[in-house]
Amino acid sequence: MLLKLENIGHTYQAGSPFQARAIEDVNLEIYEGEFLALIGHTGSGKSTLAQHLNGLLKPTSGRVLLNGQDIHEKGFDKKEVRRNIGLVFQYPEHQLFDETVEKDVGFGPRNLGLSAEEVKERVQEALEKVGMRYEDVAQKSPFELSGGQMRRVALAGVIAMRPKVLVLDEPIAGLDPLGREELMGMIKKLHEDGTTVVMVSHSMDDVARYATRAAVMDHGKLVMTGTPEEIFRQADRLTAMGLDVPQVCRLGAMLREAGLAFPENVYREEQALTALMTLLGKGAESDAE
Amino acid sequence: MLNNVTLGQYYPTNSTVHRMDPRMKIVLLVLFIVAVFMAKTLLAFIPVVAFVFIAAKLSKLPPMLLIKGLKPLRIILIITFVMNLFFLQGETVLLDLGFLTIKKEPLFTACLYAARLILLVMGSSILTLTTAPVTLTDGLERLLSPLRVIRFPAHEMAMMMTIALRFIPTLLEEADKIMKAQTARGADFESGNLIARAKAMIPLLVPLFVSAFRRAGDLAMAMEARCYHGGEGRTRLHVLKLQKRDYLALLCSCALIALVVIVR
Fold it and tell me: How far is A268 from chain B (nearest CA, A)?
């Protein structure tokens, strides 16, 4: 495995009257090449957990291991962690600051101490990966772009560091449906190209569609891990935690209630289509593309 | 990273002093300051110290809190004390070590100034510890509102102060978030010389300003949407009303001033 969280606990402002326990006793491993979705209601500790993955927060108890080494041990180079694990915060466009898109995206690579040519190469590559043309945007100010474009530039700023693991905290929050679709497409592409992805998400549909594994947080504790199928099978437990299931699951439940023989383990739209076609007596293979 | 910054000193205990009218508390502080400066003899200090003591007792604040509040003062205290002690002229020699002499009059003056400083800080601490910042600005606004006749913008001043106070924690949170985001991109805020550090602040300050302006715009819009148009003809949600305890406190402090005037 790439990253391992061992009995991680974090208490904010420990020892003061304002202390608040955000997460406790979390054990989580992140495997190379997976697409892990972190689910949980607001305040369940997902974002705090995400910030432990690249050493931004130091756990008040437990260890974070990168390739088997404790990243908070004395003498461990923090830059090594930042190089390997990229973290994209919620509303990352709020962190843009430089005069041009090129300089802003190049901020991370420059901090890694790369040469000017290498930085430029990475900026071009990163912008391309988020679906922007270098020639069009490189010399523009990031502040004259639209909200969706700013989000992409911010994402490119992290991708330009070529992290092995990309941690995204609710990357699609506040985007319109088209923007979401496009951004999720880019993240999927990054995953297919070999980046390990950890994504904090509220959208169960996205979890069902893209994730290879999901982890559920509740009140600071990791309560479930497994494939999306395994997670969504326990719909009652999710509902009890104030979480949702994918829309097709709800549709399936309604169809079953109406007396149709709709199968239970359907979580993705294309699965639902196949199931519906079968129900309607048509050949699933020919219609479902 | 920035979460150990505590803002404002308000310490709620819901004591009589806490519930007092903020206007009266400000007036009391002013009277108290006058008394502190008028007191010139040991005897005159007795009622002043007693006043602080009673106020502290009534406010139910932990005594350590008040003493801790004096900590930032210690350097100024020591400097003024030493300066007064050695550079003022005096006649009666108390101690002669050859290279330095301690005389009676300067020693007395040095003690007087030190005591004044301590009392002033303690008095104002009691005010800020027992009054929430927003209540305090509210009181200040009401006290300054008669100055409107000379076109002093009391309401606008108070509104600005209230908004500024309201947004300090928000901006701190924002700064913390941006700092983390830039650190995740390899930014280094902690090492290097002064110039390198100042330069490292740019990726933090630019987004912070952008967000502060955005918030200011949003707030202005929200206020206008609710028909805010300045202090003219505005009524209040919490109407301040002087209670018996306020008058009693005023009486006490007038008595204090009178006492100090008599015995100083």
Answer: 33
Residues 6 or more apart whose Cβ sits within 8 Å of residue B140: B22, B26, B157, B158, B161
Residues of B in contact with A13 (CB under 8 A): 3-4
If 0-12 CB within 10 Å is exposed, 13-18 middle and 19+ buried, where does residue B64 land? Answer: exposed
Same structural domain, A26 and A121: yes
Same domain, A159 and A255: no
Query: SS3 of A288, please?
Result: coil
Out of A12, A13, A111, name the one closest to residue B186 (CB). A111
Torsion over CA of B177, B181, B184 and B189, rounded to 10 degrees? -70
**Using CB atoms, which residue from B183, B184, B207 is nearest to A94?**
B207
How many residue pairs bridge chain A and chain B with CB atoms within 8 Å of each other?
62
Q: Are residues A54 and A102 in the same domain?
A: yes
Q: A267: domain range?
A: 246-289
Question: How many domains, in total, are found in chain A?
Answer: 2
Give the whole-angstrom CA distance, residue A50 versus residue A27.
13
What is the pTM assigned to this prediction?
0.76
- A220 vs chain B: nearest CA distance in angstroms? 20
Do B207 and A98 lie within an 8 Å CB cutoff?
A: no
Distance from CA of B211 to the nearest CA of A (A): 7
Full pLDDT tens readout for chain B, 264 residues: 444 334 456 788 888 888 899 999 999 999 999 999 988 888 888 889 999 999 999 988 888 888 887 888 889 999 998 888 888 887 777 777 777 778 888 888 899 899 999 999 999 888 988 888 888 888 988 888 888 888 888 888 888 888 888 888 888 889 999 999 999 998 888 877 888 888 889 999 999 999 999 999 999 999 999 988 877 778 887 788 888 889 998 998 888 888 888 887
Does residue A89 share a domain with residue A12?
yes
How is the beta sheet containing A165-169 ordered, strand by strand?
Answer: A85-88, A165-169, A196-200, A35-39, A213-218, A221-226
Closest CA–CA distance from residue B252 to any residue of chain A (Å):
35
- CB-CB under 8 Å, B186 with A54: no
Q: Does A82 touch chain B (CB under 8 A)?
A: yes
Is B207 within 8 Å of A54 when comparing Cβ atoms?
no
Terminal C-alpha separation, chain B: 51
Do A23 and A58 belong to one domain? yes
Q: Which two tokens stand for residue B5?
A: 């910054």
ipTM: 0.85
> In terms of DSSP H, where are the helices of B185-235?
194-200, 202-225
Are A210 and A136 members of one domain? yes
One domain, residues A128 and A13 = yes
